[in-house]
Amino acid sequence: MLSESEKLDALARLGIDLNLIQDLDLLMERILTEARRFVNADAGSIYIKDGDLLRFTYTQNDTLQSRLNAGDKLIYSTFTVPINGNSIAGYVAYSGQTLNLPDVYRLDPTCPYHFDKEFDDAAQYCTRSVLTIPLVSSKGDLLGILQIINAQNSSREVVPFNDSDEKIMTHFASIAAVALARAQMTRAILLRMMKMAEMRDPKETGAHVNRVGGYAVEIYENWAQRRNISAKEIDKNRDILRMAAMLHDVGKVAISDLILKKPGKLDNDEFETMKQHTVFGARLFMNPQSDFDDAAAQVALNHHERWDGQGYPGHLDFSTGEPLRGAAGSIDSVRSKAGEEIPLFGRIVAIADVYDALSSKRVYKQAWNEADVLANIEDGSGRHFDPELVEAFFSCLNVLRSIQRRYQDE
User: Fold this and answer.
1) pLDDT in the model for residue 104
2) Would you state the pLDDT for residue 410?
3) For the chain, what are the domain ranges?
4) Is 380 helix (H, G, I), strand (E, B) or coil?
5) What is the CATH number of domain 201-406?
6) Which of 38, 122, 201, 246 is most buried, judged by most C-beta within 10 A?
7) The pLDDT of residue 329 is above 70
C-alpha cells in the first residue's frame, strides 16, 4: 500500500506519465491500474459517455484474474447504462456527485439508485465498497465515470473507502480526465482520417480499423512476452502500434474510385495500381517526427508483404516508389521482402488484417465461419505469415474474439 506522501509524489508525476500515452484504450488501462494502486482496490471499471448513455468500456478485477491460467486475460462484455438516477454509475453521471458507498448490498432504501448484482451472481464475485467519481473535462463536460471497487487493508480484507481515499481519487480523476480528453481527440483525428478512406472504400470502417488495431496489440504483446521483452518496451510499442495499425490502409485515399469501387475482380493493371496504396500510405509519414510516424510508415508499406516473399510492394526506392531490381537488373527480378526483412509491425498487421477481412461481411462476400478463418491463418504459417506470430495469434485468440465483439459493424 502507498503511504500518503508516496501518493502525493505519485500524483505529481501522474499527469506527465499519462500524457505520454497516446492511444485511448491503453490510456484507460493505465488510468484504472494507477487508480486501483492509489487506494489498494481489488477491481474497477471505466464508463465512457456516449450521448445519453454510459458505455462500459474497460474493467480490471484481481480476484477474477487470479482464477485464470497464467498469461490469460480477463474477458468481459461491453454494455450501456442510461445517464439517470437509477444505477450507481448513471446517478454519478447525472448528478455530477461522487458516491462513496461502504457496502452496496446495504444501501439506504430511500436512495434513488440501486446496485445490480447480476454481474456478481454470474462471476461468483462479491462487490462491497464502491467509489464512483465523474471524469470531467477542463470545460466542465462529462467524459465518463471512474468506478473503483473493494478497497483492501494490509490483510487484503475488503473495507470501505475512507475520506482520504475519496479526496486523493478526486484529484486523480481531474488529472486523468485531462489525459482522457486528449486521447479521445487523438482517436477522433485518426477515425476522421479513416473516414476519408471509408468514403472512398466502404471496407475501411471505424469498426474495422479499431478491430485491426486491437488485434495487433494483443498479438504483439503475446509475442513480446514470449521473448521476455521488458514491460516498459512492451507498453511503449503497444501504444504506437495500435494507432499505426488503425492507419494501415490510409493510402487508399489516393486510389481512383473506378478501382476501389469496382464491383468485379480487378484486372492486372488495376491490381498493380491498387498495390500502390501501400506506398501512398507510407509517404504520408515521410520526414518522421516521432516513433509513431516511423511505425505508421512501416505498417502502411509492409502489411501486404508475405513471409515467403510473394507479397508486395517489395524493396523499392521510397522517394520515387519505383521497385528495386535484382542483381541482374531485369524487369522480372524485382527484389521481394521475405521473412524478417519485413518489419515486425508489418508482419503483425498482416495477420490482424487478414483475420478481420475474412471474419467480416463485405458487399461482395459473406463473413467466413470461424473454423475456415482459423484454418486459413494456420495454413498460412511459414508462407503468408511469420510462424512465431501465428503461434502468438492462437495463444490470444479468446482476447481477439472479445475485441471482435466489442467493435461490431453497424
Assistant:
1) 97
2) 66
3) 4-184, 201-406
4) coil
5) 1.10.3210.10
6) 246
7) no
